[in-house]
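To: structure subgroup
Subject: Chain for Friday's discussion

All,

I'm putting the inputs and outputs inline so they're searchable in the archive.
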Amino acid sequence: MPSPSLSGSITLLAALVTLTGCQIKRGETDYVETRAAIPSDTEESVFTIRRAESPGNEDLFTTGAALNVPRATASLNDTARLLAGLNALPGNNGFPDVRSGASWRSHQSDMDRIWAAYETRHEGPIRAWANREISDLQRTGSLLYPFSGPDFLFANAFFPRAETIVLCGLESAEPLPRLNDLSNAEIENGLDGLRNALTTVMQFSFFITKDMRSDLQSTRFRGVLPVLLVFLARSGHAVESVDSIRLDSSGNAVMALTGKGATGVVIRARSSQGISKRIFFLKQDLSNSSIRPGVPFLNFVSQLGQPPAFTKSASYLMHEDSFSVIRDYLLTHCRAIVQDPSGVPYRSLVNPSLDLRLYGNYQGTIDIFSNANQPDLINAYSQGKHGAQPINFGVGYLYTPSNTCLMVARRTRW
């Protein structure tokens, strides 16, 4: 169990975690998908994103306009950098008045400090471990991250070479405000809320969902889009496009208007190493009442082939029978699962078809999830099973190296 010196802070943080298993009623639309969107000259995508069209064959919208993102790539990337507290690139400062203000300079200073701590505590050690232990999985080019919320940050830390990343959660992808139309007070309030929403995940490696929603919904920077843009900019990515999407009945991603059937976004970005990426965020309830074999979401992720899955801070939902569909999907359709103990139960990973490796020093979970303790996993660590070895970083709710847990289960046969 967590040490006494940490138990108070762990319990306080854990008590604020909001479970993600509520029901969502999805609306239907009358869009007809008929022609493929045209990719960039250099793009080689796993998916074809299709445009929704009216019966008269007229476009219902223009790319990311519904999200109020700038159409020009340079302006869009500058918006991401502004939110992230980064200086404009030479000759591309679209917000000189904002950046010269005291509130933005304070935001920049705070973000620099938070990011430096994240790189030292999390990103550096994670990258070193991942390069050594899961380099084979990093080469697959795609990643499925259920129960992620807008956590591109840790997906990128563990799988920096993934070209297609599918994130999902219960949060919405709302339009950005028109920044030039906001007052100084609205910008200051928005930056404060955004920074507060990011602090916990960058410090402890998980979102406090309740606080994140409160921090963002009380400002003009709402939903997951500002968070994703900050994570992309801070991790050295140039944001090239943002589009609102939904899934059609066959699981194809199609362009859609926000508020008119859209259930997510796709962001195209390029890493500092020149890797072209597409990040999908989909609003999706993963309980059995909302997904079953053959539903659009599972058809969509099946187009990835057999990607590795990554999950952490998943509220132990896949330990429950009401989340058996997504649990069984990961076990039968993914080439590997990289997770903390809040994902698929340890007992399900002890399988002749899987090669399981343990990292960290699991001693039990935090108090709020005491009913999800795994005595068999505690015993496996104490006996050194599955090659158990320590790591120098924490992950998920067990965010200290002394009691953390990370499991890697590779499929050896299908």
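Points worth raising on Friday:
The chain is about 35% helix and 15% strand.
Residues 102-133 form the longest helix (32 residues).

D.
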